[in-house]
Write a structure and sequence with these properties.
Elements (H helix, E strand, L loop, with lengths): L16 H13 L2 H22 L6 H11 L2 H15 L2 H12 L1 H16 L3 H13 L5 H12 L2 H20 L7 H10 L1 H19 L5 H12 L1 H37 L1
């Protein structure tokens, strides 16, 4: 799953200066520059998969350059930052900054980013998935991860985000030409159960690996923050931001694929 959480460029600069400053502080505390760089590396891996499976390795330098432009780390980082200003109040951003600048907050960010980068290696992701399948569902860590997933509605939110991104990818491949949206939506919805199963497995595999170094008290404190109004507002901002960002990325990827395919037909 390519989590796989933005706003139109017309909205940039629309937020009050103080909101933008606090959003920037929160972005720094959450190390969004690292997140964006990891997403760019995921994008390059996805490019190679698409080139092989859809383009018969005909993408070449043109497709590579297109994908690098689409997965621009600075743009992605700023889109995520702007989502905070759009969705969170001044006070909520203050509280989130305090949490993410704390020792626990910095530890959580470091663990999540390290695990996300590790998942760039297929063998590590496969090992994490195998660990999840063998994990004891009644272990403390498993139960706490289950609670964390539920509090943040991670399965449903990620499944819907993935379906939306795929819809936009195929729309991009039509290069704006009218198509049968109903049929496309029906095909995507037919895969929803399979995507839910895979998303659940991915989330447990990732979070069990990422949070393994945390003790029970630290996990409970992180979950408690997630339950607060600030934690929920931050979660909403992240999903809204990532969804809109990946819808844009997916549509542009579809366009790039179509351009290669059309060029190959000439």
């Amino acid at each position: 799953m390519r989590l796989l959480c933005l706003f139109s460029v017309l909205l940039v600069g629309a937020w009050p200066a103080f909101a933008s400053e606090k959003a920037e502080q929160l972005a720094e505390a959450m190390r969004l520059d690292q997140v964006a760089q990891i997403l760019a590396e995921e994008g390059d891996i996805y490019r190679r998969e698409v080139d092989e499976t859809l383009l018969d390795n005909a993408g070449g330098d043109f497709f590579q350059a297109q994908v690098q432009d689409i997965y621009d780390p600075t743009w992605m980082r700023n889109q995520m930052r702007d989502a905070f200003a759009a969705q969170m109040s001044d006070g909520q951003m203050d509280q989130a900054i305090v949490f993410y600048k704390s020792d626990l907050g910095q530890t959580v960010v470091s663990l999540e980013n390290s695990a996300r980068r590790a998942f760039l290696t297929p063998e590590i992701e496969e090992m994490a998935r195998a660990t999840y399948k063998d994990a004891l569902a009644d272990s403390v860590l498993f139960e706490l991860v289950t609670e964390f997933i539920g509090v943040n509605d991670l399965v449903e939110q990620n499944v819907q985000g993935t379906l939306s991104a795929q819809y936009n990818f195929f729309k991009g491949m039509t290069l704006g030409q009218p198509g049968d949206d109903a049929e496309l939506l029906a095909q995507l919805l037919a895969e929803q159960d399979a995507k839910t199963e895979d998303t659940t497995e991915w989330l447990y595999s990732f979070l069990l690996m990422a949070y393994a170094p945390l003790d029970e008290a630290e996990m409970r404190e992180y979950i408690a923050f997630s339950r607060t109004k600030t934690g929920q507002a931050l979660n909403t901002a992240l999903f809204d931001g990532f969804d809109q960002m990946f819808n844009t990325i997916s549509f542009q990827l579809g366009e790039a694929v179509a351009q290669v395919l059309n060029g190959s037909d000439l």
